[in-house]
Amino acid sequence: MNNKLFSRLKDLAQKENRARLAVLLGAAAMLLILLSELFTPSGKTAAASAAPADDNVYRQQLEQQLSDLIAQVEGAGKTTVMVTLESGEETIYALDTLSGQTQEQQTHVLLDDGTALAQTVCAPRVCGVAVVCEGGGDVRVAARITELVGALLDVPSNRICVEQRRE
To answer: Given Cys at both, which of 11, 130, 133, 147 links 82, Cβ 3.0 to 4.6 Å?
Structure first.
């Protein structure tokens, strides 16, 4: 009888230890998952911090190209250009549409790494342009520059300012 009781108590203790071990392993796994989330840099954070730098590079390249082009306009002379951007680069993501009889559901198309599939990337929109050049005081030169900038950037003439460079 003592052997049966001892054997039963031993089985009960092993089952209790198994339960404790399972709870301990579960807690350790949850802790590891939490730590991996805290110490792994997220792709969204990296992309968000890179966006303003990309917009700044885009603006600087655009200003340099415009400055070089306007300097070639007859009568413009030495030129400096400043461009303001209305918004940053915009990404439009691909959507997958599931249609039922009564409703329609759209979800983003995801790649194997979990990121969304970019369908279109739109360049930042230009808000206004300021041009300072040696020939900016001549109405004809200013009009040609305004027309040139407006045609290139699709910016209305009231958002383009051409001024005479100070000597």
So the answer is: 130
